[in-house]
Amino acid sequence: MTTTSPLQGKFLIPFIAPPNGGKGTQTKRLRQKHDLPTFDMGATFRSILKEGKNPQLADEIKKYMNEGKLVPLEIVMKVFTAGFEELAQKNPNAKGFILDGFPRDLGQAQSLMALCKKWGAEIAKVVYLNVSNTTVEKRATGRRFCSKDATHVYNLNDPDFQPKDANKCDIDGEPLIIRDDDKPETVQKRLKEYAEQTNPIIDMFKKSGDLAEIDGERDADDVEVDVENALKDYLKSPVAG
Ligand code: AMP
Fold first, then answer.
1. What is the pLDDT of residue 172?
2. Which of 3, 6, 82, 161 could pair with 155 in a Cys bridge, judged by C-beta atoms 3.0 to 4.6 Å apart?
């Protein structure tokens, strides 16, 4: 008996950006506007740490995250495959899926392409938000998360994302916190890791014609217009540029 993959004929949109490059903001907008379920690799790791169901796995992941390093391939692929296949099963009617923060190095990119083949899925475009190190550093010092719901994100250095009160979430009034990996020394390590591990896949997707390179330095609305236009063949309602 043959079973059809829940991902047969679906498109995937991986987002690549440096830490604080605007991935979260853009993937949230795209998801809400086009009803595209999102698999967020960093958030999945953070929930494994929070849930504490598998302390050994959590300890291993934490070691790398706290160092600003990429979690090893074997763990990433296990967590990705299980989590993403579950997301696809839960959303049988989705036309496509967003991948936030995956792939991040050559091993992951190759594994993803092999999985796409197996699933019968295709990569729409790899959206690459190009942001300078100076901007990343500035954004990291201002980024704050709601202590109750980490999807409520603010930035004290960006007028578009400032909370009304610097210490409280606008939505639920809970205290705002700084994520461990936004600390300056960790941001530097993450940038180094990004340059070494992620730049090669940006080159690879550029050569294969799958990359949509977008200037991520501009305000979120302008970036969004470019993201929509880059994906217009896959999305129903492109916005005018
Ligand atoms: P993010 O939430 O995307 O900023 O990711 C936070 C941290 O999770 C990263 O600094 C890495 O330590 C880890 N991480 C997230 N995505 C990946 C990935 N695709 N491969 C390896 N590690 C990852």
1. 95
2. 161
Test site for ligand 1: of 20, 65, 139, most ligand atoms within 8 A of the Cβ = 65
Residue pair 229/144 in contact by the 8 Å Cβ criterion: no
Q: Cα of 218 to ligand 1 centre, how many Å? A: 24
Residue 196 structure tokens? 């070494």
Which is nearest to 162 in space by CA: 148, 134, 143? 143
Distance of CA 150 to the CA centre of its chain: 14
Three-class SS state of 175: strand
Residues with C-beta less than 6 Å from any ligand 1 atom: 19, 41-42, 45, 64-65, 68-71, 76, 101-102, 104, 108, 181, 190
Q: Give backbone dihedrals phi and psi of 38, rounded to 5 degrees, phi first.
A: -120, 135
Cα torsion 57, 60, 66, 72 to 10°: value is -100
If the chain, 241 residues long, is cut into consecutive pieces of 10 residues, what is the mean pLDDT of each piece? Answer: 80 95 94 96 94 93 92 98 95 96 97 96 97 92 92 89 93 93 89 95 96 96 97 72 40
